[in-house]
Amino acid sequence: MPPVLSTSAERLRVASRPVPKPPASLFPLTPKQPDPERRAGEAAPLASGPGGSLAVSPAADCPPPQAEAPRAPQSTDAPNRKVPATLVGIARLAASSPPAETRRKSAAGPEYFRLPVRSVLNHCDSERVPFEWTINPYRGCEFACRYCYARYTHEYMELDGADFERKIFVKQNAGPLLARDLLHKYRFPVRLSPSQFPEHIAIGTATDPYQPAELEFGVTRACLEELAKLEGLSLSITTKSQQIVRDLELLKRISERSSLFINLTVTTLRTRLARLLEPRAPRPDLRLAAVAQLREAGLAVGVFASPLLPGITDGDTDLDSLAAAAKDAGAQWFAAGVLFLMPSSRKQFLPFLREKFPRLEKQYDEWYARNGYAPEAYRRAIAERIVRLRAKYGFNARPWDEMPRPTPCVQLSLGWETSVEAEPRPRKQFRALG
Q: Structure pTM?
């Protein structure tokens, strides 16, 4: 069993809270409530990182604006075999990627491949998300979350979405490539006015940067080491793993020179349910212990409860207990968005739902058969509940939502305005350190 699933708790423990089973019925619709998700005449889900709901350019390792499969996968053969002449781009690179040596010999483990890439810093030109750049150190994720939206990214490599947790691609030479990308692609190094902040870089939007592969290949750490050499960046990291505390000293160094925000995703406090939904992700208590340890080190940390699964993790008591536990751990913000199902994810999630939650099959078929989103009225109601929970427990807004954007960017998530406002951090100049 890999260290990420260790049964020993972290040095800092968070008191567990009893959570009763959710009610059989789904959260009631409240269409008359104001819509905090709506901006510029449209609604969209929360931009929350792996497993949550994002909608940006496919080139940025994020879902496309419309919930349609990018390409129908034509082959599920393992990479590093003879490359068909018809494959191009990332599919051809994936098919020719050599196996990566690993110390893990379990037959149940994933296959690792070394993926040659030309760039690590990917630009997002969508107004649907509150960031301009993404870094995803890997393609695929071993945590195997049943609901993960990012399965579609394997279809670009002509692999089935089910291979997302079985074939993990390790990006080669990530550190040197990122150093070059920051020098040549990051658009606001020194030309900022006093009223502007740097463009935001989100790490872990389509893969978990601290999945077990990181223990062997260290691609995330290589990227962080390059980011630590610069000053004045705006960064966020989203993960489900307590392994992030391994890089605590490096993260503290980055935070001293740039704006750094860390998100730990916790979808439920119930361990057995978490294991069912997220088979190989660390336990919820380990993630909350990581929140406490990161906060004790002085880092800015919040909790993502995304995605909320209708009828499964959206109960009033469940959400209240989760928000309270996040506050007890020291989380500064709390966010959640409703399940978003790309076609590749729907193909994996709905059979799982029929087997484990048959009472919800009809409701999910009605909601998700033709659309990746839950009904707007339900999303409005959930958004209102999250706003009330943030006010109840005194959570701040996410810091980067409060920053002036270098380019127009409309946040289409949950309406982050609360009575407790986060103070914007002073702008720091972007420069290389000696």
A: 0.76
